[in-house]
Specification:
The protein is mainly beta and 705 residues long. The chain has eleven helices and 46 strands. The protein has a 23-stranded parallel β-sheet that branches. It has a 16-stranded parallel β-sheet that branches. The protein has a seven-stranded parallel β-sheet with strand order 27-29-31-34-37-40-43. This is Pectate lyase. Keywords: Aspartyl esterase, Carbohydrate metabolism, Hydrolase, Lyase, Polysaccharide degradation, Secreted, Signal.
């Protein structure tokens, strides 16, 4: 019998039958009586020929076409097609199939999970219905129809035992909240998007109000999560906590969030987890973070564009990572703790940096499986992971705002939205204080990020500091890292505390009218025009080529405008041209580097004065933009260069520039046609200066600002 609360929640309960629009197959791999005759006893699809005893897939995804190809519709009118919502064979005109290659049954450690197959099937079209059905005591298959917005925002919907929560067709989603399995057992979640429970401005997810996971498991067992998409949630994408056990994650997409997947929150070592064919992309940490886990078997996963660290084994966890792909992942495989174990086999690491640890012995996998070759994983996962969805073309302009008026509330999310762009994309950032660490990945080319000076991007890592799991932060501590080709940053204020504000490691980077506390030229060519660089340490570092044209440069007392490490065989490093150097007081630059908000608080104009105007005003430039005054300046305290190849030409050198501004014997330095109280040293001849032009440094590239 179904409970009264469920009866009150919906006008009609829809049992599975051959007459129902959903009835031409099993929603969760359980048995139904339909016209489809390919179902064997027990409801599993014998035609897929991929099921081993106990429901495990002994043939792996060599039969992907049997289980996953139906992610597109089959021509039905309403999108809720007559076909199997979860598994089983359907005919060519019977709608869609959402399933793994094993025909739609749980595999791995969650084998035997049947969800709500013992009960009836109901449809949830409202939040009230979904909450009532999911928390009911009865076994139920709950079809989520359309977009359901959670109220109140951030609420975690309780999911009781013996439930299947499945999206009915393309576009089935939960917006502004997540699912919570607290002590539940025998639960299946499939073909569903869970998104947008992030509280703007809380990038690290530290606010109690932002403890909004996509799916949270506390002491849950026998849980299968399959073909879901979880994006832009407040805290963890999927958190498996407090001795949850017998869990399988398959064919899911977790993207555009800080924390992807965490396992642990317990001193006990009980959890057993299988994760295969998942796509983790544009995330920062916990990809996975696996703590005190008896056995975590991760195979055929694709991790892409990860900022801090990839898969981590912590404390007493035992982790086996096989036949997976790590692309543009920092520290892809990490062992943290003397007792932690991580065994890796046949993985592909592309564009990764840092650690790829291996420790301990592998556990014996207690079920049959045959992983796909690692070289096939990227193609399979990017084609088939996630729920059935409708195509959403990337717009040419994306907006970001903290007040909810934009398309997204963080730059991380906005940049994630550019991944499928077929041409240049502009991201417009509204005023506000965005505390987040941002990366434009190599796969994101020709992206422009624009905003006023009071749109402040800030983070507070120390490049000289240590990661919590060991090793220096180094260049990865930068607030804004530009890896994509053709990236333009226009306007904005970008700050770091003890790390570069901006690190350029992609070719043809342009910064125009940007205010920043430091710039690292890491790779490729960069062009800075009408920028203000003012910080507490050396301003321009790195090994690559950069031109600073009509910029204002204000290092702190004792610091240097440049401290680069240009390779000996590289003819060009840094060119400073028609700029203003060393005219403002240290107090303002120190304030900027310490707070990350000084320019915003000092009332600096959103449309900064051009350097041509500043050159005519010399020592008044920074004073009038609210950053300091020449009258307060400490004279003779700033260097122009410590090392590398640097030329400063046609610039105004203020009183703070030292009389001997070049560290002797450590670089290739030159000056030409400079003016102001900090100038007056021997210079290059006109003939020599012809070798040090914008064109020479940028090698034929003509940047457009």
């Amino acid at each position: 019998m179904i409970t009264a609360v469920v009866l009150a929640a919906v006008a009609a309960i829809v049992p599975v039958s051959a007459a129902d629009v959903f009835a031409a197959g099993a929603i969760d791999g359980s048995a139904v009586s339909t016209a489809t005759t390919a179902d064997t006893a027990g409801g599993n699809n014998s035609a897929s020929a991929a099921n081993a005893a106990g429901g495990n897939n002994s043939a792996s995804t060599a039969n992907t076409a049997n289980g996953v190809q139906g992610l597109t519709g089959a021509g039905t009118d309403d999108g809720l097609a007559a076909g199997a919502v979860g598994g089983g064979l359907v005919g060519p005109a019977e709608g869609f199939v959402v399933g793994a290659a094993n025909g739609g049954v749980a595999d791995g450690f969650a084998a035997g999970t049947t969800g709500g197959s013992a009960g009836v099937t109901v449809r949830a079209t409202t939040f009230e219905q979904l909450r009532a059905f999911a928390s009911a005591a009865d076994p139920l298959v709950v079809q989520v129809v359309g977009s359901i917005r959670v109220d109140p925002f951030g609420d975690m919907i309780p999911v009781a035992s013996d439930k299947t929560i499945v999206g009915a067709g393309a576009g089935a989603e939960i917006v502004g909240g997540g699912l919570f399995l607290n002590g539940s057992h025998n639960v299946i979640i499939r073909n569903l998007t869970i998104r947008d429970s992030y509280i703007p401005g809380d990038f690290d997810g530290k606010s109690p109000a932002n403890d909004n996971d996509g799916i949270r498991l506390d002491t849950a067992d026998h849980v299968w999560i399959d073909h879901t998409r979880i994006e832009r949630v407040g805290d963890g994408g999927i958190d498996i906590r407090k001795d949850s056990d017998h869990v399988t994650l398959s064919w899911n997409v977790v993207s555009d969030i800080n924390k992807a997947l965490g396992v642990g929150w317990t001193p006990n070592v009980l959890t057993r987890l299988t994760a295969h064919h998942n796509w983790i992309r544009n995330t920062v940490q916990r990809n996975w973070s696996i703590d005190n886990t008896a056995a975590a078997h991760l195979y055929n996963n694709y991790l892409e564009n990860v900022t801090q660290y990839g898969t981590m084994s912590r404390n007493n966890a035992r982790v086996l990572v096989e036949d997976s792909v790590f692309e543009q992942v920092n520290d892809p495989l990490v062992v943290h703790g003397a007792a932690a174990g991580l065994v890796q086999r046949r993985n592909i690491l592309t564009g990764t940096t840092g650690r790829a640890d291996h420790a301990g012995e592998a556990f014996e996998v207690p079920y049959g499986y045959s992983p796909d070759l690692a070289r096939r994983v990227k193609d399979l996962v990017t084609r088939y992971a996630g729920p059935q969805s409708t195509a959403r073309p990337t717009p040419s302009t994306i907006t970001v705002a903290l007040d909810g008026s934009g398309d997204y509330a963080s730059l991380l999310a906005a940049l994630g939205a550019t991944r499928d762009a077929r041409g240049p994309v502009t991201i417009r950032v509204a005023p506000g204080y965005y505390r987040e660490q941002v990366r434009v990945w190599p796969s994101q080319s020709n992206v422009t990020i624009a905003g006023p000076a009071d749109a402040v991007i800030a983070y507070d890592l120390d490049s000289g500091g240590q990661k919590f799991y060991g090793g220096p932060l180094g260049d990865d501590a930068a607030t804004f890292t530009l890896l994509g080709e053709g990236t333009t940053v226009r306007g904005l204020t970008v700050t770091g505390t003890a790390a570069p504000a901006v690190r350029s490691a992609g070719d043809r980077t342009v910064l125009a009218g940007t205010r920043l506390t430091g710039f690292l030229a890491g790779h490729g060519r960069s062009y800075l025009r009408d920028c203000t660089v003012a910080g507490g340490g050396d301003l321009i570092t790195g090994t690559a080529v950069a031109v600073l044209d009509r910029c204002t440069l204000e290092p702190a007392t004792g610091a240097s405008v440049t401290a680069v490490a240009t390779p000996a065989l590289q003819p060009y490093g840094i060119l400073v041209l028609k700029s203003i150097v060393g005219c403002a007081a240290e107090t303002a630059t120190d304030r900027l580097s310490q707070t990350g908000q000084a320019l915003h608080q000092s009332g600096a104009s959103a449309s900064a004065e051009t350097a041509t105007g500043l050159l005519s005003r010399t020592g008044q430039a920074l004073h009038e933009s609210g950053i300091g005054s020449a009258a307060d300046a400490e004279t003779g305290t700033v260097l122009l260069g410590r090392s590398g190849q640097v030329v400063v030409r046609e610039s105004v050198l203020g009183p703070r520039v030292a009389a001997a501004p070049w560290l002797p014997g450590s670089g290739r330095f030159g000056e030409y046609a400079n003016t102001g109280p900090g100038s007056g040293r021997p210079e290059m001849t006109r003939e020599q200066a012809r070798r040090y032009t914008i064109g020479a440094y940028l090698g034929g590239w003509r940047p457009r600002t």
